[in-house]
Structures are given as C-alpha cells and as structure tokens.
Amino acid sequence: MAPYRQIIQQVRQAILTGRLRPGDQLPAVREVVTTIAINPNTVFKAYRELEHEGLVELRQGQGTFVRQGPQAMAPAELAVLRRSLLRWMKVAQRAGLQQETILALCAATLQEAERLLSEEAG
C-alpha cells in the first residue's frame, strides 16, 4: 500500500475509533516526516485527500484539524463493543482461522448486516 494511503487509513481509523475527535489537531507535516522518514509531499497528499473526504480541515498557518467524527457512539460504548469483538477474534484464531479469513468473514457479515438494516428501514 502506498505510504500516503497508509496515513489516510490510520487517520480514518483513529477518527472512527474515537482516538481523534472533532477539533483535534493532526501532527504537523514536519513532525510526521521526522517520525517516519517520509517525503513531506506524501504527507501533504494524504492530508489533502482527508480534507477532500471532509474528515479534516487544513487551516493556513495553524495546522490540520479533525472536522467531524463519523461515529456518534460514546467512547465507553465503543470500548465495550471492541472488547466483545476482541473476544470473538480470539475464538476465531484459536479455531485456526487466519487473518485473511477473519477479515473476509467480517466484511461479509458487515455487508449482510447493512442489507438487513436497509430491509428493516424500507
């Protein structure tokens, strides 16, 4: 995966899991460059893409800030769900499922849940 895509994925995940909240500032480009030895243009590209998606706002001379949090669940409730998911993943790993299989099963289950929710709404 391209480095700028990795940055985008990490920021998205941090927003979705509540580690980053609206108003939080992302690390400065210079800080990211120093920390992971990456080209500044790569970081700029990732931040611009996140801005294009509406997740962050670039403020001239101030930095990059989280605009919105797509999840509305309280952090404590999210933590309960995460622990439950971790327990399930441990069971799946003990049953011999590999990471790719677990991810595929999660994706298929998520699609099914979305379909069922849309049927209930319609």
Q: Nutshell version of this structure?
A:
With 122 residues, the chain is mostly helical. Helices cover 64% and strands 7% of the residues. It is globular and about 50 Å long.
Structural write-up:
The protein has helices spanning 3-16, 29-36, 40-52, 75-94, 99-121; strands at residues 56-59, 63-66. The chain is mainly alpha-helical and 122 residues long. It has two domains: 3-66, Winged helix-like DNA-binding domain superfamily/Winged helix DNA-binding domain (Arc Repressor Mutant, subunit A, Orthogonal Bundle), CATH 1.10.10; 75-121. The longest helix has 23 residues, at 99-121. 11% of the residues are buried.
Oligomeric state: single chain
How many distinct helices?
Answer: 5
- Largest sheet data: 2 strands, antiparallel
Query: Radius of gyration from the CA trace?
Result: 18 Å
Q: Judging by the overall fold, what is the CATH architecture of the largest domain?
A: Orthogonal Bundle
The third-level CATH topology of the largest domain is Arc Repressor Mutant, subunit A
